[in-house]
Amino acid sequence: MLDVVFGQASDPGKIRTNNEDSMGSFVPSSRHQARSHGYLFAVADGVGGMDLGEIASSTAVGVLVSEFEKSQPGAMLISLLPRLVQFANAAVHDCTLAPQYRGKKMATTVVACAMRYDQAIVSHVGDSRCYLVRNGVARQITQDHTWVNEQKKLGLITAEEIAESDMRHVLIRSLGPEMFVSPETNAITLQPGDVLVLCSDGLHDEMKREEIAAIVSQHKDMDQIAHELVARAVEVDGNDNTTAQVIRVRSVEQVGMYRGRPYRLPS
């Protein structure tokens, strides 16, 4: 059976008085629920420069967690998770129509990871990221939905130029502004010992992948590792809210799929 341990931490940073990042999780309460639903983790970062970023991010995470818990047992995660991101987008968009928020503009990024058996499905919108750390090496799973990253794909700007660009935080996709959004979704086959890191840009802007990998590969309590990641990013800069969820895979259950239904592989 899939077994994971996780830790999480968030810090408003040195400049801002409020924290517009949010995080949440669904942890199964039984072995049966671990197989019928699995785990869900999510990090959202309210977009600065708009109103009520903390409302946008907390709304998105709240919808993801509650709808995941209510989802049909055995639902295919590869199709379920992007659908839940759409639900979260609709909820944030609807917030702007509520009487107490009318006239306000709000948006948020989100990265969510659903895990079951030996699979992790990652769905995201914006520039909150997911890293997979395996054998001490970190690999970025998500691709930022930013203007500069699109320019990089076209060969018009280099990674070094992105790091110095004043436009690096300009999003081309986020939850809330439009009624519909297109999340990007990836599937990962998990191995025991893998570590997944979900984080806001307050962390990945200040830390290289090698440093993230070194910290999360330590044999420490997962909350301690998450706090160390966040503290290090804040120490480097601290101009932004910083959030991290760190999930370590202790064991997996290998399964095959037949007509959408899992079956155990012979040991």
Topology overview:
Blueprint: E1 3-11, E2 21-26, H1 31-36, E3 39-46, H2 53-70, H3 77-95, E4 108-116, E5 119-125, E6 129-134, E7 137-140, H4 147-153, H5 159-164, E8 184-189, E9 195-199, H6 201-204, H7 209-216, H8 222-236, E10 242-251, E11 255-258, E12 261-264
Could you explain how this protein is built, in words?
The protein has 8 helices and 12 strands. The chain has a 5-stranded antiparallel sheet. A 5-stranded antiparallel sheet has the order 2-3-4-5-8. The longest helix has 19 residues, at 77-95. It is an alpha+beta fold and 267 residues long. Strand 4 and strand 5 form a beta hairpin. It has helices at 31-36, 53-70, 77-95, 147-153, 159-164, 201-204, 209-216, 222-236; strands at 3-11, 21-26, 39-46, 108-116, 119-125, 129-134, 137-140, 184-189, 195-199, 242-251, 255-258, 261-264. Helix 2 runs antiparallel to helix 3 (77-95). Helix content is 31%, strand content 29%. The chain has one domain (3-252): Phosphatase 2c, domain 1 (4-Layer Sandwich).
